[in-house]
Known about the structure:
By secondary structure, the protein is an alpha+beta fold. It has helices at 12-16, 20-29, 44-50, 60-67, 82-90, 103-107, 122-132; strands spanning 3-10, 33-40, 72-80, 116-118. A 4-stranded antiparallel β-sheet has the order 2-3-1-4. Residues 54, 59, 62-63, 93, 111-112, 114, 117, 120 line the site of guanosine-5'-diphosphate.
Amino acid sequence: MANERTLSIIKPDAVAKNVIGEIESRFEKAGLKIVAAKMLQLSQAQAEGFYAEHKERSFFGDLVGFMTSGPVIVQVLEGDNAIAANRDLMGATNPKEAEAGTIRADFAQSIDANAVHGSDSPESAEREIAYFFGSEEICAR
Ligand code: GDP
Ligand code: MG
């Protein structure tokens, strides 16, 4: 299995609900290690740049508004097949469609406020990790 890194965000709704620890616990129990982490209040420009791939979508304004509505945790998870493993733990984008036991099924309330972000490919993981972290901020462990 490939050892990978992926960019994870605990979104403002989950930070506000005070379930940071419960979400981190899902990652740890699945064998993913947190190798970098910080809490940030995203600026509008930071959120727009992060989600640039969605800028033509009708929901872009709502997405940026939501992601800047309160602090987030941005972090790098590392482990076997970390990109797909994190997406499996997260569940479907729309929590109404997310499988029971996934983070979004258990903690998200809507397609906007859906608790977590996870990179969807090796290319996006590389871009997204570099968007928030310098190589010196990522720890070997
Ligand atoms: P993800 O990779 O599962 O997070 O989903 P996408 O990359 O497709 O979309 C990014 C984020 O935009 C999602 O996590 C949602 O918060 C939001 N989003 C996606 N589709 C919709 C939609 O149809 N309506 C709204 N309001 N937000 C959406
Ligand atoms: Mg996505």
